[in-house]
Amino acid sequence: MNILVVLVPAALLLGLAGLAAFMWALRANQFDDVEGSAHRILSDDDLRFSDRHNEHK
């Protein structure tokens, strides 16, 4: 039963740390561009790079 004296505050501290990290991410605009990566993966930047790389051979 004495272990609860340690585990309950530890769980609360970890929960608050997670909440603080989430709030920081919201304020730092980490979630503004949720579709940017989805569009970037469809771009042909790698194709243009390979074309330039083959010209130098």
- Number of strand elements: 0
Give the overall pLDDT as a whole number.
83
First-last Cα distance: 72 Å
Distinct helical segment count: 3
Global geometry: elongated
Q: What is the strand content? A: under 5%
Q: Main β-sheet: number of strands, strand sense, barrel status?
A: none
**Radius of gyration, CA atoms, in whole angstroms:** 23 Å
| Tally of structural domains | 1
Order of helix and strand elements from N to C terminus: HHH
What structural class should be given to the helix and strand makeup?
mainly alpha
Q: pLDDT below 50 for ≥5 consecutive residues: which ranges?
A: none
Helix content estimate:
over 70%
Describe this structure in words.
With 57 residues, this protein is an all-alpha fold. It has one domain (4-55). The chain contains 3 helices and no strands. The longest helix is centred in the N-terminal third of the chain and has 24 residues, at 4-27. The protein starts with a helix and ends with a helix. 0% of the residues are buried.
